[in-house]
Design goal:
Length: 598
């Protein structure tokens, strides 16, 4: 994507006997500003950006990264030292170490922006060198430019074409949008970078409680004496032992090297300097993190939650960093990066729980969930793409009640309500399925009710019945909910009332499941239901009668036509003259031969 068609990282150093065009424009601008304000242009610009905090991406003790207000390329950044520096060789050791750390953080941000190995071109601009090095270049400030070409996703890049090439470059994103897109990753990426730097250092002390160092079984391990100058000779002992592990003349200074750490090496170590100062280090062994197992579920149309668990036990203190962003359809107009697409932190509630919640999600959008497991030996990330349509699973229905119907020994009435977590809007509907079985019967019977209640007509008289309900989106999005807690009810055993008025209420009988040691229930009744419930709809009966009438008329018409054809075409007898058929044409009497003229 950048330069050579064979993807590979590479560096180039260019030297020329003249000042190139871009560097020459920077030279003129910086010199003019210095002559007017007596201060380097980029020093003052960095100070203003620090005050405004609108376009800052990263800051550290010695460096800052920002999106310049003149940025043209998507996610273009400017790297500046905080103090006045002319050239790279003038950096102090602390500034060089800090530079490596902030560059690592910036490139990690780039890679996580679209979850891809982010291409970019980067270069340093410093004061001229060579024969001109002795001139006055105090107006110059060392800085680096990053020019990434990606625009909307890992596969969509920006091209300079048309008006941009012939007249003036155009911005696809404002500098503030670029900065907010990158800064949204700060919380996750800084913690990941800290873990990676800790794991890669020879003395990983920057993670977890003080005085504890971490390593991996079967790997070399280096312990460092805390509070001791690097290279100072020390003596090493195991806590509670007098045997010398390593003397001050080992040539390893303040470090203790374990060639192959194992469980026997875990514990506390004592280091003592030549002047008697004592330090303590505790070694804990474990394994780097693996990709966590992540799953997500939506209980309604507006929010969803994600849970996770480690795929392997590391044995080390571990925390999880969670974020999410809204995915966009490739090529769509809405795919341009904006603050509305994230990324945002996925809040863990309560903090430290293995669950995070995304609120105010859009039902028709897709989201990418980022769960990163971090421990002192590194970090591992799981990316999961989800849509609310596929992960929608309502909570079980609530308030399930089972009531007997007086006078009907084989009927039970079940009713329930929507789960409290489901939206109250009437256009968000659920459908239900109901299962029931008599006590001590292994198999469930199932029906799909049309509303929030159902009458069971084939219950076993005299036996308690277990009933449960589950729900699903009315348009079949997602999956069925879990079953509700079982409710119990027993059909009525009383006689059929002589008159049931409209104001009468059914007798409610909530029966708990009897204990195992209770006496055997009464034998079920073998009598038929005296008044079976008719589920026919009057409209359905009218439709059936109309269909039968139409088919009857069609049958009569076909029969009449068949009879007429048969009478017309039937053969006459073999003897005697042929008789005119029933449908033969009529001949007037006055046309017959020999007819008298009246």
């Amino acid at each position: 994507m950048m330069g050579c068609s064979n993807p590979h990282p590479h560096c180039q150093v260019w030297a020329s006997s003249f000042l190139p065009d871009i560097a020459q424009r920077e030279e003129k601008s910086q010199r003019a500003y210095q002559s007017r304000h007596r201060e380097p242009l980029l020093m003052e610009y960095g100070h203003q950006e620090l005050l405004r905090k609108e376009r800052l991406v990263l800051t550290s003790e010695h460096w800052l990264v920002l999106v310049p207000f003149w940025a043209v390329w998507p996610f273009q950044t400017l790297l500046l030292p905080r103090r006045h520096v002319l050239r790279l060789p003038e950096l102090t050791p602390a500034e060089r170490d800090d530079l490596a750390l902030i560059m690592k953080k910036l490139l990690t941000k780039y890679d996580n922006l679209f979850e891809t190995s982010f291409p970019y071109s980067m270069g340093w601009h410093g004061a001229p060198t060579g024969s001109e090095a002795g001139a006055n270049w105090d107006h110059w400030q060392l800085h680096a430019h990053y020019y990434p070409p990606l625009l909307r996703s890992a596969t969509v890049r920006k091209f300079m074409v048309g008006y941009e090439m012939l007249a003036q470059a155009q911005r696809d994103l404002t500098p503030e949008q670029m900065s907010s897109s990158c800064s949204g990753l700060s919380r996750v990426l800084v913690a990941v970078a800290t873990a990676l730097v800790s794991a890669s250092s020879s003395c990983p002390q920057a993670w977890g409680p003080p005085g504890v160092q971490y390593g991996q079984p079967g790997r070399p391990m280096t312990l460092c004496c805390p509070g001791v100058t690097a290279g100072a000779p020390v003596s090493w002992f195991r806590d509670g032992e007098t045997r010398l592990l390593q003397g001050p003349d080992s040539g390893l200074g303040h470090e203790l090297v374990l060639a192959r750490a194992d469980s026997a090496d875990e514990g506390t170590y004592i280091c003592r300097t030549l002047d008697g100062a004592v330090g303590m280090v505790t070694l804990q062994l474990g394994y780097p993190p693996a990709r966590p197992v992540v799953s997500c579920r939506a209980a309604d149309y507006e929010n969803f939650s994600c849970t996770w668990s480690p795929s392997q036990v590391s044995g080390l203190p571990t925390r999880y960093l969670t974020s999410y962003r809204k995915k966009t359809v490739p090529g769509a107009d809405g795919q341009r990066m904006s603050p509305s697409t994230g990324p945002w932190p996925c809040l863990q509630d309560p903090p430290g729980a293995a669950c995070c919640v995304v609120r105010g999600a859009e039902f028709w959008s897709q989201y990418r969930i980022n769960v990163t497991e971090v421990n002192p030996l590194g970090a591992s990330t799981r990316l999961l793409d989800v849509s609310l349509q596929s992960i929608l699973r309502p909570d079980p229905p609530q308030g399930l009640r089972v009531e007997s119907v007086p006078g009907y020994p084989r009927r039970l009435r079940a009713s329930w309500t929507y789960p409290a977590s489901w939206p109250r809007q009437p256009h968000f509907l659920l459908k239900f399925r109901l299962q029931y079985r008599p006590m001590q019967h292994p198999a469930w019977s199932m029906v799909e009710p049309a509303g929030l209640e159902e009458v069971i007509t084939d219950a076993v008289a005299g036996l308690p019945h277990a009933v449960r309900v589950s729900a699903r989106d009315f348009l079949d999005a997602g999956t069925w909910s879990a079953w509700s807690p079982e409710a119990w009810g027993t059909p009525s055993t009383g006689p059929l009332p002589k008159e049931i008025t409209a104001e009468s209420q059914p007798h409610t009988q909530l029966v708990e499941e009897p204990p195992a040691d209770s006496p055997a229930p009464p034998r079920p009744s073998l009598l038929p239901d005296p008044q079976p419930l008719v589920h026919r709809d009057p409209l359905e009966q009218v439709a059936v009668i109309a269909s039968l009438g139409i088919f009857s008329l069609l049958g009569l018409a076909v029969g009449a036509l068949a009879l007429g054809l048969w009478l017309r075409l039937r053969p006459d007898g073999k003897d005697g003259p042929p008789k005119p058929g029933f449908l033969a044409p009529m001949i007037p009497v006055d046309k017959l031969p020999g007819a008298p003229n009246l």
